[in-house]
Structure formats: structure tokens, C-alpha cells
Protein: Transporter (NhaC family)
Organism: Rossellomorea aquimaris
Amino acid sequence: MLNIQSVNKPKVIEASVILLAVLGIISGSIIGLESVPHIPIILSLFFLMVYGLSRKVKFKEIEQGMIVGAQGGLGAILLFFFIGLLVSSWLLSGTIPTLMFYGFEFVSPHYFYAIAFLLTSLSGIVIGSSLTTAATIGVALIGIGEAMGLSMSITAGAIVSGAFFGDKMSPLSDTTNLASSIVKVDLFTHIRNMAWTTVPAFIITLIVFGLLSPETSDVNLTQLKSLQDGLDQTGLIHWYSLVPVLLLIVLIVFKTPALLTLAINIVVSIGLSFLHGSLKLNELFQVLFSGFESKTGVESIDSLLTRGGVNSMMFTISLVILSLSLGGLLFKLGIIPVLLNKVSTILQSGRRTILSTALSAIGINLVVGEQYLSILLTGEAFQSQYKKLGLHPKNLSRTLEDAGTVINPLVPWSVCGIFLTDVLGVATIEYLPFAIFCLISPVITILYGFTGWTIEKEQTETNPIASN
């Protein structure tokens, strides 16, 4: 949105009041009325239209601000379409069920918390959804932990930590795609750059859960075995189903563009599906659009595997379009530029900018309770400052994920917090101290910002340069 020219120059106090009013409309609706974010964003657009007209701004200019803002999300929207197709094709080829099946083989009563973290991490990566992981694998692990007489708070903390690690590092994740697209960074460049902060956070978390885990073998793994049997009943467990994963890794290593990587993987996965199934062309097209439907009769398995398709991404796509339209209008009416100009007098260094980015993403999560908006609004607001300081935009996309995506499950009134409390049966405030990965991720990214380690200048991408 850096190319949007403001047509209004409000004073700092006026801009602050307008922005707080917009955040109030959104947060009040989402938290107080439990509304999906789309409606309060539309209400905010109406509010800004009225404000713009009251300041004698032509409606054509207002409309242009929304349109130009939405156009900035076309790259993300294309990726989301391909992600929906990839999830469907990975289910058809058996890739996701096979990874889950063999992942269960590693579950042991010993070091249970650490294993729960590892298993949900794997699930999050292959599924690309933290909430789906928690609602399926997480629920099973909660049952096992309860049967063992273990702490439900620590078990839930391990599940949340693993689910959001997997979501954060998965090329199938909508938040990962959103963070990379909003600042125009290649998806796999973004994921590789996140490894600098995410891998240390993962190792620390694994060690902590290893130390917290009891050494016991007195437990009934019946619930987990039933999940594994349910996966086996699908007829999708095959060694060749792992080929798409290996192909994905190879394409990432060779730095193949994200859309091309996904397209190749979709074609190969669909081809592999014909080795164990025979869908008619119209049925294949239906699955690719509406998603794969599992019919094993095992509720938890059907819930886990019934997903994917272009249609499954429409909620996110529509939210992205509306949010970017909101951002475009905020820029057009001069709200964000005025505030950024004021802030830029303070943010004269990379370390302060990264700290402010992280705090803004956390703040929006606390105020609005929506992780998409924390990524979108913060990303749009700080792009110009990173450009001004010569910082590579992948520093921004990484900070958005480290302090935006993983904080949402820690907020009791947030979308993720409410959902996780409901499905796991553990209050957000109870598992919060043990969601180790989510707690230390923003700390590490802020620490890197202050030390300058792995913070790269845009002109010298291959050589990390510390920001002053």
C-alpha cells in the first residue's frame, strides 16, 4: 500500500481517535458479540466512508483506496487457491494420512509431554492448521494424558505449542502464506528465514517438555490405537504417498517459486492417487473444489481428513480482501501515514522498529483477538518503515509470525483461545504458562532485533548485517 497517495491530512490526535474507533468496532464485535471478523470490518469501512465524506473527500477517492488496498492481496489469494488444491491432493494421494499413521508409532508413555509436542508439531506441518491439529490429535492426547493422571495444563500447553509450531512452519498454513504475501516475500524464503528464530524456540520447548515429562509406562493407549486403526481403514496408507513430501523438500532446496512448487506437487499428488483409487474426472474436480470427504465412520478420523479444496479457503480469502480494503482506506484517508510519520521520529533504528512491530502485533491480538488482522494491519503499517531503514521485508514477515500468529492462542477472548479452551477442555489461562513455544517465540525475535543477528539489509540478502 506504499503507492497509495493520501488525500487527507488529519492531526495526530484525530488520526489516533479514528484508528481507536475502528479497533473498538472490530474488537467489540468479535469479543463482545462473538462475531466473525468480516461484519465488523465492513462496519469499519462504513464508518471510514462517513468520516472521509465529512472531510470533503470525494467518494471516488474513497472507493479507489479500498480497491487499491484489496489489489495488494492478489498474490496471497492465488497462493490460498493453490493451498486448498494441495490439501485436497495430499489427502487423495494419502500423504497426510500416511504421515499421521507413522507419526503415531513414535508415541510412548515415556516423556509424554515432549512426544505430544513432537506429534502435534508434525501434524501441524502436514495439515497446515493448528486448530484442526488441536481438535483431532490434540483431543486424543488429552484423553491419554488424563488416563495417565498427568497435568492437563501441561498436556494442553504441549499440544498448543506443537500445533502452532507446525502451523507457523507449514507451507500449507494460511497465516504463513498471508505473512509472506502481505510484505511480498517468497513463501519458502519466508519459511527458511523463520527457521532462525523458530528452530531455537522449538529446541528449547522440546527440552522443557522433556524435563517436565514423567517416566512412566502405566498407561492405556487404546484411544491412540483406535485413531491409528481408523487411518489404516482409509486405504490411503502407502509408502509412495510420502513422495510429495520429499518432492516438496527438493523444490524448496532448489528455491523454486512457491506457486510453481505447489503446482508441481498438486499434479504429482493427483497422479499418485490413481495408484490406489479411481475417481472419475467430475468427481476429482469436485474434490479439488469442495475438499476431500472421509467416510471411515470414525468421527475423529473423518473430522481430521475431511478438509481441503478451493472452497475451504474462501473464508480466509474474503477476510484478506476486506482487511486489505480497510488498510487501503486507512492509508487513503491519511490515518496510518500520519501516525507512522509521528512514530518514525522515534523509530530511527532497526532494533526499535522490530520491537515496535512485535508489540503492535501482540497488541492487536490483545485488543481485537484476531490473528489475521494482527498480521495484516501490522504488516501494512510497518512496510514503509522497513523500506526506509533498508531492512529486507523478510525481517518484517518473520516478526509478524513470531509475535502475531503464535500469540493468539494465549489470549482468552481471542478466536484461537476460545476454540482451544472448548475442544481441549482446559482454560486458556491454565495452559498459558506451559505454551512454551508461543511464549518464547516473540522474545527470541525481539532479542534478534536488538542484537542484529540474522537481520538482513535489503541490498545484501546473503550477508546478514546487524541493524543499529
